[in-house]
Write a structure and sequence with these properties.
Layout: E1 6-17, E2 27-39, E3 44-48, H1 55-62, E4 70-75, E5 78-79, H2 85-92, E6 95-98, H3 112-123, H4 129-142, H5 159-171, E7 177-181, H6 189-206, E8 209-214, H7 217-220, E9 226-231, E10 234-240, H8 241-246, H9 251-258, H10 265-270, H11 301-305, E11 311-313, E12 316-318
Parallel strand pairs: 3-8, 3-9, 6-7, 7-8
Antiparallel strand pairs: 1-2, 1-4, 4-5, 9-10, 10-12, 11-12
Helix pairs in contact: 3-4, 3-5, 4-5, 5-6
Length: 328
């Protein structure tokens, strides 16, 4: 088996918050709290969880866009934290991101050609304008944009087309790893499917490894090889996609699947979607023991006093004391 292209070990991102007043004490917000996983070449790892669970912070920490409190991120075996700014800049060429809001991530003052070609100017400053334009036109074709659109501005495009521009910009450097930070959450349902299918096609064509972040399991179902379920900055479950959807082990994963709407009216009436009850606790003062216990219908006394370890149960890695008993 080939070595992971990206390895994350015990990654923690904590933010110190200061209340007003000189006598107030600072508080620590644990946005990401001890996350470890590997991403293999050509693989898609889906990262799912409710808003505020730490998905986007995890993505930005991996790319060096927010400071890491502890832990390490290795790309192709190289610990990115040990690199000087020049070395890190060179490695970042291989690690790119697609943002959630396509229009907000594009500079309204720049044309499509300038936006997509900007990474080439940053990393290959000596490249001629003709060569740069040739590469821009080639990647535009790959993502379904027309050559005559090269001189248009972002406001002239729909959300789906704008996201194609963002994808082209991320792929112009032919990276190995692309972090997709909720790339379809701001799009209509039909456009979501088009973008997900496009990413799958581009992955096959360019051999990409994708970290696909979404707030619901439905968005990652058809593109992910494995799925990581995040809650309050911690991994609840990590398993092959078929295992996650067919036999979820963690109560939180089960709740997320039950909350997914079913398109078939007859099935929807027989198995109506059930929203997860309660609100996530504050990451500033998380519950003792298992962080999910305050919303878990199966919580026992042990859950309040003992933090569950992420351990192998069947084909899944699960952080639950009762994982063996909870297969649906």
């Amino acid at each position: 088996m080939s070595s992971p292209i990206l390895s994350v070990r015990d990654l923690r991102v904590h933010f110190t918050l200061h209340d007003d007043g000189w006598l107030s004490k600072s508080k620590t917000l644990r946005a990401v709290d001890g996350v470890s996983f590997d991403l293999n070449p050509g693989e898609t790892l889906g990262v799912v969880g409710e808003s505020g669970c730490g998905k986007s912070t995890l993505a930005r920490a991996i790319l060096g866009l927010v400071p890491v409190t502890s832990g390490e991120v290795r790309y192709a075996g190289v610990n990115l934290a040990t690199l000087n700014p020049e070395q890190f800049h060179e490695q970042r060429r291989h690690l790119q991101i697609i943002f959630q809001d396509p229009l907000a991530s594009l500079d309204p003052r720049m044309t499509v050609g300038q936006i997509i070609g900007e990474p080439l100017r940053a990393f290959f400053s000596r490249m001629s304008a003709d060569e740069r334009q040739s590469k821009v036109l080639a990647i535009m074709q790959h993502v379904g944009l027309l050559p005559e659109q090269i001189n248009r501005y972002p406001h002239e495009f729909s959300g789906g087309q704008a996201q194609r521009i963002g994808i082209a910009r991320a792929l112009i450097l032919h990276p190995d790893v692309v972090v997709c930070d909720e790339p379809v959450s701001a799009l209509d349902v039909s456009i979501k499917a088009q973008i997900v299918n496009l990413l799958g096609d581009l992955q096959s064509k360019f051999g990409l490894s994708l970290l696909f972040i979404a707030h619901d399991l439905a968005s990652v179902r058809h593109i992910s090889h494995r799925v990581l379920v995040l809650y309050l900055g911690k991994i609840m479950e990590l398993a092959p996609a078929d295992e996650i959807y067919g036999a979820p082990r963690h109560p939180y994963t089960q709740s997320l699947i039950q909350a997914v709407p079913v398109a078939d009216p007859q099935r929807a009436r027989a198995h109506p979607a059930k929203a997860l009850s309660g609100e996530p606790p504050s990451p500033i003062s998380p519950p003792s023991g298992c962080v999910f216990r305050t919303r878990c219908p199966y919580a026992v006394e042990r859950c309040a006093v003992e933090v569950p370890e992420l351990r192998q149960v069947g084909k899944s890695m699960v952080a639950c004391h009762l994982a063996e008993e909870l297969v649906p």
